[in-house]
Design a protein that fits this description.
About 45% of the residues lie in helices and about 15% in strands. By secondary structure, the chain is an alpha+beta fold. Helix 1 packs parallel to helix 3. The relative contact order is 0.18.
Length: about 190
């Protein structure tokens, strides 16, 4: 519950204090808060407009329900190793955090723009309908920001950014949970 509250508190703060694509350095040039919104799946991929978004949202709810059932119905009842429960709980919490964005942010926030900060509970209602909200992303780690050497085939001289995805805390929970399970709990997952 605490992890979910942290995720939502940061997302709400970013959404109500940053304009779209606003960026603030946290630790020099290599870690920034950069506000973007993801209207679809991972890396901003959209799936066929409104119906694609609805199908994606319903799939997310179904997948999180299965993970929740697995954690609470199976793992906790079998006296499973705490590491396994921890990994799946991180994945569950991260996925649930992003579902909250999709389900409710369109209803409770005004549209974020490049000129105006979104308002929570706007007078005329939100920018979208139930299950059609956008996921708030803000963590940006452009660790290396340079150019390819001129002699490099096909992309010589073009800009190169190492680790350019912008993501959120919920995404980090999912990634850490999966990596933790694969690296440290893989023998117990059999």
């Amino acid at each position: 519950m605490v992890l979910l509250l942290v995720d939502q508190a940061v997302k709400i703060w970013i959404k109500t204090h940053f304009t779209l694509d606003e960026s603030v350095d946290v630790f020099g040039q290599w870690f920034r808060l950069r506000f973007i919104e993801n209207p679809g799946a991972a890396y901003g991929m959209e799936l066929g407009g409104k119906y694609g978004k609805l199908i994606l949202s319903l799939f997310r709810i179904f997948a999180v329900s299965l993970i929740g059932y697995y954690i609470f119905g199976k793992l906790l009842n079998r006296n499973t190793a705490k590491g396994i429960v921890l990994g799946f709980t991180l994945i569950f919490t991260g996925a649930l955090g992003n579902i909250i964005d999709c389900a409710f942010y369109g209803l409770i926030f005004s549209e974020s723009t490049f000129l105006e900060v979104a308002k929570i509970f706007p007078e005329g209602g939100g920018y979208g309908t139930f299950l059609h909200g956008k996921v708030v992303d803000m963590l940006y780690f452009p660790i290396i920001n340079s150019h390819y050497p001129e002699w490099f085939p096909f992309v010589g001289g073009e800009r190169f950014i190492f680790f350019s995805p912008v993501f959120n805390i919920a995404d980090a929970y999912i990634s850490v949970g999966v990596i933790y399970l694969l690296l440290f709990q893989h023998k117990r997952l059999k």
